[in-house]
Structure to design on (144 residues):
């Protein structure tokens, strides 16, 4: 989003995100994946997190928390999918308004960082068990 704000010279809003996914494909796909991860869609780290939180609530017998979590997830879908709709399903500004030549070096570094974040977000779904084992080991070392 910092790249988008720098290009426009103003804060990012849903209105000025229109067409962003088509102008900056890598960043649009990354934003799309992050929004789906926040919502807890499968094949993302957010899904694994929600499964463990909901499983812990179920095991503790807190069905009210499961209901609140499910309702909050459904409500949040409206917000997260609004961003996805804005970047891909709304017509963007005139293409001449934003120069799309080869990005300068800092943008390449940003693109590399975004790509790495996508790999971690999706990869955390497939490599969840070692991370969970590490967290359990760290938690077992805490003194209460």
């Amino acid at each position: 989003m910092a790249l988008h704000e720098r290009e426009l010279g103003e804060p990012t809003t849903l209105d000025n995100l229109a067409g962003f996914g088509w102008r900056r494909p890598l960043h649009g796909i990354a934003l799309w994946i992050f929004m789906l991860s926040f919502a807890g869609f499968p094949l993302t780290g957010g899904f694994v997190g929600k499964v463990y939180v909901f499983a812990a609530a179920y095991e503790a017998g807190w069905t009210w928390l499961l209901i609140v979590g499910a309702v909050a997830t459904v409500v949040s879908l409206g917000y997260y999918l609004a961003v996805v709709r804005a970047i891909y399903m709304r017509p963007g500004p005139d293409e001449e308004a934003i120069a799309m030549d080869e990005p300068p070096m800092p943008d390449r570094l940003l693109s590399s960082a975004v790509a790495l974040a996508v790999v971690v977000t999706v990869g955390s779904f497939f490599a969840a068990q070692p991370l969970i084992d590490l967290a359990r080991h760290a938690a077992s070392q805490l003194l209460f």
User: Anything to note?
Assistant: The first helix runs from residue 2 to 8. Residues 2-92+104-140 form one domain. The chain has seven helices and no strands.
